[in-house]
Design brief:
Elements lengths: L2 H24 L20 H6 L9 H16 L4 H14 L5 E2 H5 L11 E2 L1 H9 L2 H10 L6 H11 L5 H14 L4 H12 L5 H8 L7 H9 L11 H7 L20 H16 L11 H14 L6 H7 L2 E2 L2 E2 L5
Antiparallel strand pairs: 1-2, 3-4
Helix pairs in contact: 3-10, 4-6, 4-9, 4-12, 6-16, 7-8, 8-9, 11-12, 14-15
């Protein structure tokens, strides 16, 4: 390459970067009815957005994207099972208001961990519990609408370092009694979203009747089932987009006269911002863009490379990437 062509290539890259930052600066958040007094940082002032805008989706996230596509195709062609729904719900519920812990603290309970990471996320630990004999026993019973109290007690003992185990136990009992009958409805919503025939709000409205899963976390549950059009508005995203003194203050605002809660409006605003980022990814991931963009921003904020392999393996009935003889 000649010096002139090199300079031309560099100029093209610089212009592209300038255009991307310009798009961030030009973005204006749409008006809202319930969170209008919630202060948001300008999109162009968010360091993670500056670094990620227009960039390719990080390679370590591609396997989770492929898993999501597989799940969507299962929902479309054969339907998801009650077991699928129960696993996705439990993993999501386990992640709420809990953070990663040192692995030694988790291993001390006797829970076998599939990850080699020093920091163990609660959702990964819960996915690993589902792979244990008592975890499978819980799923066997819950899939039939039966609450296995002994299995839930075992979970509480293994999960105790992450705290709030009484609440999680109540949620697992609730899901056993209420979720198995919803597999057909959920399969339909996942399949229609895969074909671009379901609005994101349709999923969030369904989740209003699901214990403990509000708009902010509904996208995480749906990602494990193959629906990716709702981003997850978790604590890390809140920290990126909002000042400390206004974080999450208006998420539960609602009105009988308006279809959306404050949380719905917040998720919609986050989705609009993530579209402006225009992350580059294979076309097969198009229906999953919002969740995968969230995943990319989440890792960018902490400098991590989260694969969620433990979750993928549990959702796919596998251990360590291999088919598990005692399918979970």
């Amino acid at each position: 390459m000649t010096q002139k062509s090199r300079l031309g290539a560099l100029s093209s890259v610089a212009k592209s970067a300038a255009d991307r930052i310009g798009a961030l600066r030009a973005h204006r958040d749409a008006p809202t009815q319930k969170i209008g007094d919630w202060q948001w940082k300008p999109l162009a002032e968010i360091p993670e957005a500056q670094r990620m805008a227009g960039e390719p989706l990080p390679a370590h996230i591609h396997p989770f994207g492929d898993f999501m596509v597989d799940q969507a195709e299962r929902a479309d062609k054969q339907g998801l099972t009650p077991r699928d729904i129960l696993k996705a719900y439990g993993i999501t519920a386990s992640s709420i208001q809990r953070g990663a812990l040192n692995r030694a603290k988790v291993e001390a309970t006797g829970l076998p961990l599939s990850s080699s990471d020093e920091k163990i996320r609660p959702e990964g630990a819960f996915a690993d519990w589902l792979q244990t004999p008592m975890g499978k026993r819980y799923l066997d019973a819950a899939s039939r609408g039966v609450v296995d109290a002994d299995a839930i007690t075992d979970m509480q003992a293994k999960f105790r370092p992450f705290d709030m185990v009484d609440k999680l136990g109540e949620q697992l009992a609730w899901s056993a009694s209420n979720l198995p009958s919803s597999s057909n409805v959920i399969s339909d919503l996942v399949a229609r979203a895969y074909h671009g025939k379901s609005d994101p709000q349709e999923w969030r409205e369904l989740m209003r009747g699901v214990s403990g899963i509000g708009p902010a976390k509904s996208g995480f549950m749906s990602s494990m089932l193959g629906r990716g059009d709702n981003p997850t508005f978790d604590a890390r995203q809140l920290k990126m987009h909002t000042p400390d003194d206004t974080r999450s203050k208006y998420m539960t605002r609602s009105s009988q006269k308006l279809p959306m809660t404050g949380g719905d409006e917040a998720v919609e605003r986050l989705a609009a911002r993530q579209r402006v980022l225009d992350l580059q990814m294979p076309s097969r991931f198009d229906p999953m863009y919002q969740h995968l963009a969230h995943h990319g921003m989440w890792d960018e904020a902490s400098g991590t490379k989260t694969t969620h392999q433990d979750i993928i393996d549990t959702m796919r009935y596998r251990v360590g990437g291999r088919v598990n003889a005692g399918d979970v």
